[in-house]
């Protein structure tokens, strides 16, 4: 269950890895590569729901670009 702080829903990597069916190390790599924005607080990575939306919107737009290029 995400933590809600000042109107932000924040997920830790354990929660996200279960929801997205990827490993925690994959998520850390995505953060390191800038694919997902995250913050380290008290030794734990946290990702906002807004950062997840941006990640998925970016992936969708990249997919659409590739798909249009094939036509």
Task: Give the helices and strands, then pairings.
Blueprint: E1 3-5, E2 8-12, H1 13-20, H2 24-33, E3 39-41, E4 44-48, H3 49-69
Antiparallel strand pairs: 1-2, 2-4, 3-4
Keywords:
71 residues; alpha+beta; Multidrug-efflux Transporter Regulator, Chain: A, Domain 2; 4-stranded antiparallel sheet; 4 strands; globular
What can you tell me about this protein's structure?
- With 71 residues, the protein is α+β, with helices and mostly antiparallel strands.
- The protein has one domain: Multidrug-efflux Transporter Regulator, Chain: A, Domain 2.
- It has helices spanning 13-20, 24-33, 49-69; strands at residues 3-5, 8-12, 39-41, 44-48.
- A 4-stranded antiparallel sheet has the order 1-2-4-3.
- The longest helix is centred in the last third of the chain and has 21 residues, at 49-69.
- The model has no long low-confidence stretch (mean pLDDT 88).
Sequence of strands across the biggest β-sheet: 1-2-4-3
Order of helices and strands: EEHHEEH
Low-confidence stretches: none
Apparent shape: globular
- Give me the Rg, rounded: 14 Å
Overall helicity: 40-55%
Brief digest:
The chain has 71 residues and is of the alpha+beta class.
């Amino acid at each position: 269950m995400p933590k809600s702080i000042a109107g932000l829903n924040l997920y830790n990597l354990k929660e996200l890895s279960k929801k997205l069916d990827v490993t925690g190390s994959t998520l850390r790599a995505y953060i390191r590569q800038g694919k997902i924005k995250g913050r380290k607080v008290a030794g734990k990575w946290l990702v906002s729901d807004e950062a997840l939306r941006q990640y998925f919107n970016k992936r969708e737009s990249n997919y659409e670009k590739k798909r249009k290029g094939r036509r």
